[in-house]
Amino acid sequence: MTSDEKLRRLEELKERYAAERDKRLRDDGNNQYLGFEELERQFDHDPFADPDFTRDALEEECEVAIIGAGMGGLMTGARLMERGIKDIRIIDKAADFGGTWYWNRYPGAACDVESYCYMPFLEETGYMPTEKYAKAPEIFAHCQRIGRHFNLYDRSLFQTLVSELRWLDDENRWLVTTNRGDKIKARFVTIAGGIMHKAKLPGIPGVETFGGHSFHTTRWDYGFTGGSPTERMEKLKDKKVAIIGTGATAIQAVPRLAQDCEQLYVVQRTPSAVGPRDNGPTDEEWFKSLEPGWQRKRMQNFTRMVSSEEVEQDLVQDGWTNIFKHIPNAYAASSEEQQLADMEQMDKVRARVDAIIEDEETAEGLKPWYAMMCKRPCFHDEYLQSFNQENVTLVDTKGHGVDAIDETGLTVGGQHYDVDCIIYSTGFEISTFYVRRLGFEIYGRNGVSMSEDWGKQTGPHTLHGIHSHGFPNMFMFSLVQGGQTVNFVHLLTELAIHVAEIVKQCDAEGIEVIEATEEGEAQWWQKIMEFLMVSAEFRANCTPSYMNAEGRPDPSMIKIATYNGSMTSYGKILEDWRAEGDMPGLAKFKASEDA
Q: Do domains 3-44+199-277+332-424 and 59-198+430-520+562-590 have the same CATH topology?
């Protein structure tokens, strides 16, 4: 293809991308979804916990309270313990450690970043992942291993919901109250609620009227399906099942459902870009040959690769690094050269669909028409192949979604599908308001709530996405003005080290209270703005999804933007900040001083 032909094709693709984008646009944006609280009895329960669990309420004080027992909470607890800060309390709604990997036990669940980079503390625990992309049960078991290794179980309260956080001005302590009547006073609070903490449901008319069985993938009901994450779901052999959603979760669950259902309807608004996974077992000799410090080096190498930074060698060599080798700055592909590179890679993704799918109409429905990083790319060696099975039907809503749900099934494009079960693979709230996603209110200085403070015209305000003026001694792990990367565990790794070092320094220097200054926050926002406009322009042209507020971003919510420089640069910013020694951007008060 000549240069002129490529440019003409690029212009044609842009028109096609825009047309496909417009199909998904809705006036209600993020409001098209429901939270679990709207249908709490039906969806928001824990199928993995002891429903009869009880315990006495606690009244206690601790050095650090950690909200969340997923990867972020685990790593923070571990790093604090390493530094001799053992007076900690971890609180979580779940009945064990794991976070994402506690809740997501759907069949086929696995990490989509290689396990050697994704599973933390492999060197510290001496654990070797069984394969390059570990499955959910193995990752969950590793979270439990970390909890045991760092003696975190005795310091944890499970099956416990935080009701509110309230700063006590006269005591310089946070009061953490819970649904079990606990009253815990903490000098510091770390909120490690996760980016995939709050599941969402589509606001389809009649969703509450369905007379069959239904659940969200984060609450997989093996009591109904039979089987387990590793065993066949024998109870589905005579069942008609619809799974709504075709994002990263469905890509993994559909092949397992296709094996076991009498009939499977895969209900799609926008197809995912699905490349080959090429998973395989871990080479034990290779793993034994790795030198101390290998995991952090490998994690940083991967992050640099997916940040389009130069490296001497690609240590991971997978679908992720291949994308960024071929598409420079793929998250903000705006130049003609970048767009041509993106076109070439997406053409390969679409060609793979044609090569695998036997039915021409189904193949056309499964082709993604958008730039590579408009949605999280997926990698799987069985998903597309599932649609060649006679019992699997693609229900392509062509961007419009399900029309309605009634007692017996769902309607799409005027056609009704009778089903016994509806599975919602509809993702998580990511771009909604921070406090809404946490599920509890935070009251800072003078009793001012974060909803009120961040809800003002100025919006959210932070230093590094971690500290916020008016909310002393609090560390936040979120995407609000914080770092971001393909491998979220790398971000959590840096944040856990950062928090532990700050608490250690406060102890060493007798600092009682730290708090972001308004000047420090303003400087950080200027840093965010350096990268914001280019990525914002790219996202604006993407198909609607959680990555661009469903195509209807609220201008007043611009301040929830992430730091869109590379994860490498974000980590270096934190490291250099610590090296300065005087905590620039934070006000510091010793016990004898008035905070």
A: yes
Question: SS3 for 219?
Answer: helix
Mean pLDDT of 29-57: 71
**Extents of the domains making up the chain:** 3-44+199-277+332-424, 59-198+430-520+562-590
DSSP H stretches of helix in 357-473 = 360-365, 383-386, 434-438, 450-454
Given this structure, which CATH class describes domain 59-198+430-520+562-590?
Answer: alpha beta
491-511: pLDDT as tens digits:
999 999 999 999 999 999 999
Q: How far apart are CA 147 and CA 287, in angstroms?
A: 23
The rounded distance, in Å, linking the Cα atoms of 316 and 276 is 15
Q: What is the pLDDT of residues 280-325, one digit of tens each?
A: 999 999 999 999 999 999 999 999 999 989 899 999 999 999 999 9
φ, ψ dihedrals at 87, nearest 5° = -85, 70
Pair 135, 150: CB distance under 8 Å: no
Mind giving me the DSSP string for 79-146? HHHHTT---EEEE-SSSSS-THHHH---TT-B-SS-HHHHSTTHHHHT---SBSS-BHHHHHHHHHHH
> Which stretches within 412-517 are classed as H helix?
434-438, 450-454, 488-509
CATH 3.30.420.40 for domain 3-44+199-277+332-424: no
Output the CA angle 472-478-481, nearest 5 degrees. 80
Task: Give the mean pLDDT of 29-47.
Answer: 58
Report whether 471 contacts 514 (CB < 8 A): no
Q: What is the mean pLDDT of residues 535-552?
A: 66
431 pLDDT tier (thresholds 50, 70, 90) = low
